[in-house]
Amino acid sequence: MIHELRLIPRGGDRSLVVTWDDMTGAIRGDGAEHAVAAIERYAPRETIPIEPEGSGYTLSAEPSRSLADMVAILHNSFRVPDWLMAYYPTPDQDDGDCPAGDELPETPLEH
């Protein structure tokens, strides 16, 4: 499914709009290079910092195809849409599992 994400850089106020295809992992749009740079900071299966402070979360083998991985990564650099924050992982979740199981949500494109 293709999602439109309005990302606001932490410490900034100008939003970036990207489209993300969770089936292929492709990220496109005017702000795509910033989102891709945030994702490329981490390697697949790397443990990254998440909230609460001092906690970690291990990414899956394909972070750009996982809701939990994407929100964990993007939340470190951006304010992300509320619907995506619903998939923010807990420290004891592993390998990109999302709270809703394997099904992706039917979310309309944001405008």
Q: H/E series, N to C?
A: EEEHEEHEH
Alpha carbon gyration radius:
13 Å
What kind of sheet is the major sheet?
Answer: 4 strands, antiparallel
Tell me the number of helical segments per DSSP (H or I, 4 or more residues long).
3
Q: How many DSSP E strands?
A: 6
Strand content: 15-25%
* Class by SSE composition: alpha+beta
Task: State the oligomer.
Answer: single chain
Q: What would you call the shape?
A: globular
What is the overall pLDDT average?
A: 85
Stretches where pLDDT is under 50 for at least 5 consecutive residues are 95-108
Distance from N terminus to C terminus (CA atoms, Å) equals 16 Å
Strand arrangement within the widest β-sheet reads 3-2-1-6
Q: Classify the helix fraction into a percent range.
A: 10-25%
Question: What do these coordinates show?
Answer:
- The chain is α+β, with helices and mostly antiparallel strands and 111 residues long.
- The protein has a 4-stranded antiparallel sheet, with helices on one face.
- β2 and β3 form a beta hairpin.
- The protein is globular and about 35 Å long.
- About 13% of the residues have low confidence.
Core attributes:
two-stranded antiparallel ribbon; 20% helix; globular; alpha+beta; 23% strand; single chain; 111 residues; four-stranded antiparallel β-sheet; 3 helices
